Amino acid sequence: MILASPHRRARSPWLARALLGALLAATMAGSWARTPPAPGNADVGGVIGLREAYLDPAFWAARLPEPDRVILDRAGIAAQNARMRAEDRSIHDLRALPAQLPRAQVLAQIQALSTWPDKATFGQDGAPIAPAQRSAAIANLALGAVPAQRPLQYGLVTHRAALRTFPTALRVFTSRGDTDIDRFQESALFPGDAVAVLHESADGQWWFITSERYSAWIEKRFVGIGDAATVLGYGQRGPYRVITGATAHTAYTPEQPRVSRLQLDMGVRLPVLADWPVEQTVNGQQAHAGYVLQLPVRNDDGSLALVPALLPRSQDSAADYLPLTPRNLLAQAFKFLGERYGWGHDYDTRDCSGFVSEIYRSFGVLMPRNTSAQAVSPALDRIAFAPEDGKARRDSAVGQLQVGDLVYIPGHVMVAIGHLDGRTWLIHDTAGGSWSGAGGKRVQAHLNGVSVTPLEPMMASDTVSYIDRITNIQRIRPQTPE
């Protein structure tokens, strides 16, 4: 997602420590430079400096002095999430919404999102979007139908579902022939996510909803409408299963197609029916080899129901959120390695900020959805950079990066994994990528997925490096008084 220009902020205690420790950082950087590279001297896949060993999270964990150090315990994460909900304006408290939504409030939210791109727009076939298509998408907003007071409704998402700029499945691109970046694709929600329904499209097929992290259009067929207590109370009590793989799937079942082979993404937490009778089958299958989840479904009349479904034990899940340690951060990030880039969670995958969100969600850490909000969140430990900040300050901060730290440039975020060969190494979900090659000439790559790269050689243009363009560094860690 596009990153807005951040406001400069007072330097954090972390930065003060970084500046005071600059000499130590320089010494450490020198030791990294002297570290022998991993065996083999060919760049894997043509990525500058990359070695086969670097694609294994265990390689990076073995280099850490305390890979199993707990960064934040459960109480610390709860406090961190409370700060996020209290201080970050991109996070929405569904419980605080009024029972009747004023027309002006509903219109303001829709109009803030549903604006047509300023650039020329093209369809999947490369042809310009016809005026009739544009008119239809705008008319489907049904802004004139917003009542003076809209009764609030609550629902649970029943299936991984796209969040859209307009109430349409029309894919819209601003570069002819580039069909990876659908400008109407905003994000996605997952089974069990709670939403507040603010408005309905003219064709009756879409809701405009607010979730904890995003407001956008969603297809009605993926939302079951229920009472506030059921929706907001869903999954608030254990036991649980937390999805710890990149994705997991429920068991196939012809008896209950609504929960058959349902995709569940990393960090999704779902309640378990622990007292399910052992002699009773679940959708035609004995349950000993799986966990009996309670999943939301949408009835034919649009109402919410909760039904049992099996999550096979072969799927990567845990009884609770994982401990937040450097080793686990590496392991979770690398579970996405090689997954194709999906702008706005398109292609049933994720983009750079979604990648970060899902990693931290597997530890129970709440993050804003987009880079624009993540990068400047006041609830995190932030170092802000201005264009005039020079090489010394930027290099010092880069030298202090720890596993799991988040590095932001305009429109992109990267996760630090370690220092080696005199370079800082990252894992990130990227559509592109380029670096200085032989003779200083820029090599343009189409990484288009979750990749491991060094930071220092990465170039934003022929003359500007990624380090030159860093806008913010964020760290999830115990808060230190200013």
Features:
disordered N terminus; 11 helices; SH3 type barrels; alpha+beta
Give an overview in words.
The chain has 482 residues and is an alpha+beta fold. It has 3 domains: 13-72 and 324-475, endopeptidase domain like (from Nostoc punctiforme) (endopeptidase fold (from Nostoc punctiforme)), CATH 3.90.1720; 94-233, SH3 type barrels, CATH 2.30.30; 240-318, SH3 type barrels. It is 21% helix and 24% strand. It has a 6-stranded antiparallel β-sheet. Strands 8-7-6-3-9 form a 5-stranded antiparallel β-sheet. A 3-stranded antiparallel β-sheet has the order 13-10-16, with no helix packed on it. It is globular. The two termini are 30 Å apart. The relative contact order is 0.16.
Question: What is the element layout, followed by pairings?
Answer:
Elements lengths: L12 H8 L1 H13 L22 H6 L11 H14 L12 E3 H11 L17 H9 L9 E3 L1 E5 L3 E4 L20 E5 L4 E7 L5 E5 L4 E5 L3 E4 L1 H6 L6 E4 L3 E3 L13 E3 L3 E3 L18 E9 L5 E9 L4 E2 L7 H9 L17 H10 L9 H4 L6 E4 L6 H9 L6 E4 L2 E9 L2 E8 L3 E3 L5 E3 L4 E6 L17 E4 L7
Antiparallel strand pairs: 1-2, 3-6, 3-9, 4-5, 6-7, 7-8, 10-13, 10-16, 11-12, 14-15, 17-24, 18-19, 18-24, 19-20, 20-23, 21-22
* Span between termini: 30 Å
Total domains: 3
User: What's the pLDDT, averaged over the residues?
Assistant: 91
Question: Structural class, from secondary structure content?
Answer: alpha+beta
In spatial order, strands of the major sheet run 17-24-18-19-20-23
User: What is Rg?
Assistant: 23 Å
Annotation, overall tally of beta strands: 24
Estimate the strand proportion.
15-25%
How does CATH name the architecture of the largest domain?
Answer: Alpha-Beta Complex
Per DSSP, the total helix count is 11
Shape descriptor reads globular
CATH homologous superfamily name of the largest domain? endopeptidase domain like (from Nostoc punctiforme)
Sheet with the most strands?
6 strands, antiparallel
Helix content: 10-25%
Might you state the CATH topology name of the largest domain? endopeptidase fold (from Nostoc punctiforme)
What is the CATH level 1 assignment of the largest domain? Alpha Beta
User: Spans of 5+ residues with little confidence (pLDDT < 50)?
Assistant: 1-39
